[in-house]
């Protein structure tokens, strides 16, 4: 999909208002019925001159285990761009229900260090509706550049699943295959995640999706308990990779099974090196030490 001229938003969208509107839209669709036609909105949303808050940055770094620095972590930039992406998914002409959307995958390119003093322009659009064995998936593309027409310094493609939603005109032959079997390696770390993990990450990311906040709010959307944010898990794994990732890198993560809170999560990080000790790539995988079920996996590779 090629987006038309962007819709310039006067200010950063409020995630809380977007979730309230999404709930109202879901209720309206239940009453009136959905008339989705499988066509994504051919427009992008943009917010200009975004200035990160240094106190929020510090709180994020502390929660995720990132080193204190004036450089924005790649996951922090994702959180910064998330309200713009959400505003696209909250449009009246967006064909899938926003609430209950499941996060499947992220591919992020962090092309150069971005400092908190830099004003940024953020643009997001929807792309590539396609079938999934459990419903319909799509990509949300976000790009961040220095304000005033600078080069793209960060870009991300987030893949989401609307479970149980099968749109007309979507070729089911393209549905994703089921995950393969998994044999857990020896862990390099063990995380203890409290029941308040979702609320703690929401406080630094602004993502107050009800599925992450409490048992009651999660059950209202079909989950047996609250679940950890996918980007909390991925960003914490990235922080565990540490300085080996370098200044510019491609970061990938694929989510398989949700982490229901509270939880223990085992993590293994492996790093490949060149003969002279130069770093090439880190891979990581996380799983439940109790059941052995894989939660997510990914990689970080130098650009």
TrEMBL record:
Pfam families: MaoC_dehydratas. GO terms for cellular component: fatty acid synthase complex. It comes from the Bacteria. One of its GO terms (biological process) is fatty acid biosynthetic process. Residues 196-272 form the MaoC-like domain. One of its GO terms (molecular function) is fatty acid synthase activity. PANTHER family: 3-HYDROXYACYL-THIOESTER DEHYDRATASE HTDX-RELATED, 3-HYDROXYACYL-THIOESTER DEHYDRATASE X. Belongs to the enoyl-CoA hydratase/isomerase family. This is MaoC-like domain-containing protein.
